[in-house]
Every structure is written in C-alpha cells, then in structure tokens.
Specification:
Elements (H helix, E strand, L loop, with lengths): L4 E4 L13 E2 L14 E10 L3 E2 L5 E8 L10 E7 L1 H9 L5 E5 L2 E4 L3 H4 L4 E5 L6 E5 L38 E16 L5 E8 L5 E8 L14 E12 L2 E15 L16 E2 L2 H17 L17 E15 L2 E7 L18 E2 L2 H6 L5 E6 L1 H8 L5 E12 L8 E6 L8 E5 L4 H12 L2 H12 L9 H9 L17 H5 L26 E3 L6 E3 L3 H12 L13 E7 L7 E7 L13 E4 L1
Parallel strand pairs: 1-10, 1-16, 2-3, 6-9, 13-15, 20-22
Antiparallel strand pairs: 3-5, 3-7, 4-5, 5-6, 7-10, 8-9, 11-12, 11-14, 12-13, 14-15, 17-18, 17-19, 17-21, 18-20, 21-22, 21-23, 24-25, 26-27, 27-28
The protein binds one DNA strand of 10 nucleotides through strand 11, strand 12, strand 13, strand 15 and strand 21.
Length: 603
DNA sequence: TTAGGTTTCG
C-alpha cells in the first residue's frame, strides 16, 4: 500500500478516503484481529517530542481521542509512529487536528494500566504499509520566514504554491502547474538509468506542453491511466527545445494525478508522503474537469475484445491470466476482458513449462483469453507483471494474418517495440473505477456459456466458418435477413428433418456451417460452345503454366492490325529467334501517346 | 544520462 499523508488546510466537508476502507470502532481494536481495509479516526489530543529509538529509527508518539466514544470512560489510544513517517508527522501534527490511519498494527499496550488508555496501541510505519490521512482543522495564518529551526511541535508552515498557466512558461524556470493530459506514454524503462514517461498537457490557455519525466522509482512518476486525467506538477523545470517549451523533471519534482471525470471523487494519486491540498485546489480540479469535458477529446481508442477491428490499434483494459517467455525479444501475455473476440485469434506456441498462471484458470478461460505478444522494451515490464493483476495495454496492434500453410486466416495481437503513440503497459490499481467495473463484469460472465462455445468449435459448427474474410463479409451484411417466401410453413428443427423420410417440405432457420463452392472463381465455368465441354477456371498455378505454354507458340498473324489496335512484330536476337507481337490499342480508333497506350503482348 | 509524442514489419 502506498504511504500517503494528506494534509487539508481548510476544513473539508468530505474527506477523500479510498472506498475500500471502512471505519473501525475503538472498541473493536484488538490484537490478533484482522484490520485490513479498516481505518481508525481520532482527534490528536496529545503529542510527545520526536525522538530516536536505540537503533536510530525516528519515533513519534501521539494520543488520539475517539469522538464517537466520548461518553465512555476509555476513549483514547496511543499511536506509535516509526521511521520517515514519524519525521513527517512531527512536522505537521497539531492538537485538535483529525488523524486517520489505515494499515496499522494493533499491539497490546504495555502502558495501558498506567495511562488509562486503550489496552492496545497502534503501530504505524512505512514498513507496515500504513497510510495516514491528515486533516488540519484550522489554517495557520503565520507564514514563518524559514522552516528550519522552527519549533515543529508547535507550528507548521503551509507553503503557498503559485501555479503558472501553460501560456506563461519561460525558459530556464522551475514552476508549478496544472494540466489536462492530452497524451501520455506510460512509464517505461529508458536507455539510461531511469523510468521515463512523456506527458503532454493542455490547459484553458490552450497551450500545449510536452513534459519528459524521469525517475529511478516507477512509483514517483505520475499515475496517469487515461487521456483526460488531470495532473498537478510541482517544481517542474521549463526549457526551450526545438522552438517550443518543454517540461522536464527537476530535483524536487512531485505530482498529483486526478481522475478527469466530472463528478468523480477528487482523490489524488501520488507517491508523495506529504502534500498540501486546499479547498482552492479542489475547486481548480473541478473547474479543469468541466473545461476538459468540452475541450479535450478523450474518445481514445479503448476497445473491448468483442469490438476489435482488424488492422487497427487499440487500448485494452484487461486481467492477466497467464504469461510466458517466448524468446529474447518477445514475451507472451494471456489476458481476458470477459468478452469474446469475434475473430479467430492466434495462439502463440510456448512450452508448457514456460507458461506461468493457474492451470485450472487458464483452462477454464481458454475460449475467452487472447494472446498478446509484446516486444523489445516492453518485455522487461511484462515479465514483472503479477498474474491476476489488472492492466491497461496501450496501442495493441490487431494484425490480420491471412490463411497460409494450412492456417485459417486469423487475428494477431502485437505490442510492438518502441513507445510511439503511447504504446506500453500500465498496471491499474484495484480501486481504479475502470477496474471495479471490469471486475464486476468478469464476475458476471457465464463461463458455462463459453464452454458451449468450445463444444461448438469442436464439432465444427464454428471452426468451418472461421475464415476471417467470411467473418468480415458477414459483419458487413445487415444483421437480419427476412425471407418472404413460405411464410405459411413454421420452422422445423434440423434434428426432426434428419429423422424424417423423404420427400417432405420444411422451412428451417439455421446457422450457416459451411458452403460450396468455397472460392468465388469456382462458381464460374469455362464453356466451349463447339464441343459443349465445361471446365473449371484455372487457379493461379495452372494459369501461369498456360501462359508459359502460349509463350512458346508463335503469334497468330491473323490477329494483327484490326480496327481497334495496330500490331508490330519483331524477332528476338537470341538463339530462340522468338517472334513477338505488340498490339497498340487505339482509343476512338486513334493511336494515343505511347505512355497512355494500352499494350497487349503476344508470343 | 535517459527522451524530446505521431504506430511494426516480429
């Protein structure tokens, strides 16, 4: 769990907590109990000086009072904060503020008998995966000139940030800014030492800024998941590059990212342990959302597997079911999104021993999973992905592969190398709204239904019709064909007809399984009016052979110089002394300029 | 340092 310390300067009507967290009552805090996904909220009534433990760890102790249990005799609890979080908390905590903590340990309190507080205390640290949400109830009006050397037990300094609109950026400055994400590349491993993410922002000044962000820690780059997300960057360096302003990470760079949807909760995504977030800034986000709704197109290329278009690129939100190494430069991801790809998709052959993932799950979902082959720079990230995690894969190429070598035509999914068009893989957290929606959908998928799909394929009902071109043709047709004839007959099941004796008249409604002739040219025959013989139109190879054959026959002089072409004949200089005739086709009985003339060559 | 938006070619 990320460690966050949320500091709201003014009183806030609603504290933006992740939805999965539930409030825990003071009475229910007991050691040995599961407090996962629970938070405890209290008012700071006492804090002790920041100290160091014997092992050098920073240590800060506070006492929280539970407002819901004020009437009970025992209504306070000790909270012991360790490490970096102790330092952070000591800087900002004041009596009377609201302190909310999740991801704490509940330990028997050795001092309970003496201090009369709760029999347990809470242990809070980064290592324990704790998160603190901190609400400062009163704005401190005094801005101290310098924060170093302050009595931090008494005062905290709320830095006043100034944000520069994108049309006011100057070369060589370090600024704070807001922007709506117009384009982004999810973090990828650069050729240097860091992760890199490229983000293009716009704002109501209608100026675009492309930022190149580097950090050795993946978590420190902005957590952008889609076009239209809103970011707040602090301390980004502005430089001029190719005649345009460019943003680049500077030493103290920090970012917050917000969902850009109007009306969605304003909950920042960040890895910063301490950050300010005022009512004023809350308003800025809401204003930017409204502006973006009509000024930034977020009609990206998101698709479901059921909606993929061959030969196009698309973004997919999905769950990882399996993964396997293929070779040095490519890696296989088996994913599903609960929908069925309407085209036969390829299965990348891998050794069973190389395939990671729960065997029973892979088997259960095998008709709904598709293989995505990722290449080059994406391999490193792909390898690190956890089975079951939720992903957004950006700019997957749905490549149409035609039938050859005994394969039916099918669709292949590639995540090619490079990062053009934001190509890459992003891991979505469980609390992401799109993930929640996908999870709910995956839970609703009737897996028995997909098993039926499989049995259809096995008996050929489906596989005889898996030619991609046929699918494409079928998709282009109207979905319903109304037959106007024989309306007086009701439909009869094929089973009944098979068990009946001929002749009978029936009307059926059935799915097309196969048809003949398979190729259009087989529908046309060559007919000789003299001998009345009927022949197949020759296929490609036979046709070549016939042409070769005619090449050794001398041109027919009777066919020279007609009303619609002029003919010229010459004899080749080689030993074969072939006779070749070129017929220049006339247009309106006139010869054209040579470059405009249709030529027919004989011999 | 890295990348500096604008699809691979497996």
């Amino acid at each position: 769990m990320p460690v966050e310390l949320l500091k709201i300067i003014k009183e806030q009507s609603e504290i933006p907590l992740p939805r999965h967290l539930q409030k825990e009552d003071l009475k229910h805090l007991q050691d040995g109990h599961d407090h996962t996904n629970k938070y405890f909220q209290g008012i700071v009534i006492l804090s002790y000086p920041l100290t160091k433990l014997s092992d050098g760890t920073d240590f800060f102790k506070i006492v929280l009072q539970d407002l819901d249990n004020l009437c009970s005799r025992m209504n306070s609890i000790n909270v012991l904060i360790h490490g970096k979080m102790a330092l952070d908390c000591a800087k900002i905590i004041r009596h009377g503020d609201t302190f909310i903590v999740a991801g704490f340990k509940v330990i028997k309190s050795p001092t309970a008998r003496d201090d009369g507080r709760h029999v347990c205390h809470l242990e809070v640290s980064e290592e324990a995966g704790s998160t603190i949400y901190y609400v400062q109830t009163k704005m401190l009006q005094i801005i101290l000139p310098c924060s170093s050397g302050n009595n931090q037990d008494t005062f905290s300094v709320a830095p006043k940030y100034v944000y520069t609109p994108l049309n006011r950026l100057k070369d060589g400055t370090i600024v704070n800014l807001y922007g709506v994400v117009k384009f982004f590349k999810p973090p990828y491993v650069s050729k240097g030492t860091d992760y890199c993410s490229v983000v293009t922002l716009v704002d109501p000044s209608n100026v675009k800024l492309t930022c190149t962000l580097f950090n050795g820690n993946l978590d420190s780059l902005p957590k952008i998941y889609k076009i239209g997300d809103i970011v707040r960057f602090h301390r980004i360096k502005i430089r001029e590059y190719n005649g345009q302003m460019q943003g680049i990470t500077s030493g103290g760079f920090a970012s917050l990212t917000f969902d850009g949807t109007v009306g969605a909760p304003v909950v920042p995504r960040t890895s910063s342990r301490v950050y300010t977030f005022t009512d004023e800034e809350h308003k800025t986000i809401e204003d930017l959302r409204v502006w973006a709704a009509s000024n930034v197109s977020n009609s990206g290329s998101a698709a479901k597997l059921s909606g993929v278009q061959p030969m196009l690129f698309f973004d997919l939100t999905c769950q990882l079911v399996g993964k396997a190494k293929v070779d040095g430069s490519s890696f296989l991801l088996k994913i599903w999104d609960g929908t069925k790809c309407p085209y036969p998709s390829w299965k990348v052959p891998v050794e069973a021993k190389d395939l990671e993932g729960e065997k029973s799950r892979l088997r259960q979902l095998r008709n709904l999973t598709v293989d995505i082959l990722v290449y080059d720079n994406h391999v490193h990230l792909a390898k690190s992905l956890k089975i079951g995690s939720f992903l957004r894969i950006y700019s997957i190429h749905a490549k149409q592969a035609s039938a050859d070598n005994g394969n039916v035509s099918h669709i292949e999914f590639h995540l090619h190398g490079g990062t053009c068009y934001g190509r890459g893989i992003g891991v979505l957290p469980e609390n992401n709204p799109d993930v929640k929606e996908l999870k709910a959908f995956l839970d609703s998928v009737d897996l028995a239904d997909s098993q039926n799909m499989e049995s259809m394929e096995l008996d050929g009902t489906y596989s005889d019709f898996t030619d991609l071109e046929s699918h494409l043709q079928r998709c282009q047709q109207l979905p319903v064909t109304v037959l106007t004839d024989h309306q007086d007959l009701s439909n009869t099941e094929l089973k009944t007809i098979m068990n009946s004796t001929a002749p009978q008249q029936y009307r059926i409604r059935a799915k097309l399984r196969t048809y003949k002739p398979q190729k259009l040219h087989q529908s046309v025959k060559l007919h000789c009016s003299k001998c009345n013989s009927l022949q197949e139109v020759p296929n490609g190879d036979d046709f070549d052979f016939i042409l070769q054959d005619s090449a050794i026959t001398a041109p027919n002089p009777e066919l020279h110089n007609t009303s619609w072409y002029d003919s010229v004949m010459w004899t080749t200089q080689d030993q074969k002394q072939r006779k070749i005739v070129i017929h220049f086709v006339k247009h309106d009985e006139m010869l054209q300029q040579p470059e405009d003339t249709l030529l027919m060559i004989e011999g």
